Amino acid sequence: MGRVRTRQIKAASEQLVEMIGKNLASDFEHNKKIIDEYVQTGSKRLRNFIAGYVTHLIKKQQKNQKNSS
């Protein structure tokens, strides 16, 4: 089983991918910096959770594009 993520983290991550998906990459460190600019989180931990899920979504999109081509 994987890590459990709250709906809040998933919703925020999905919105970010829709809004600024072109600026995001499959690199966690890069996404952390980008998310820090766009989202005012109260803690580093929350920012890291969002960055981790965004990274997961980007990798999933890249995999789907690769398989469909």
Plain-language structure description:
The structure is a single chain. The model has no long low-confidence stretch (mean pLDDT 92). The longest helix has 25 residues. The protein has one domain: Diphtheria Toxin Repressor, domain 2 (Orthogonal Bundle), CATH 1.10.60.20. The protein is mostly helical and 69 residues long. The protein contains 3 helices and no strands. It is globular and about 40 Å long. Helices cover 72% and strands 0% of the residues. Helix 1 packs across helix 3 and helix 2 packs across helix 3.
Question: What fraction, in percent, of the residue positions are helical?
Answer: over 70%
Q: If you consult CATH, what is the topology? A: Diphtheria Toxin Repressor, domain 2
Instruction: Let me know the CATH homologous superfamily.
Output: Ribosomal protein S17
The overall pLDDT average reads 92
Radius of gyration: 12 Å
What class, by secondary structure content?
Answer: mainly alpha
Question: What is the correct CATH architecture?
Answer: Orthogonal Bundle
User: Would you identify the regions where 5 or more consecutive residues have pLDDT less than 50?
Assistant: none
Tally of helical runs: 3
N-to-C terminal Cα separation, in Å? 30 Å
**Estimated share of beta-strand residues:** under 5%
Give the strand tally: 0
Task: Assign an overall shape.
Answer: globular
CATH class descriptor: Mainly Alpha
> Quick one: biggest sheet?
none
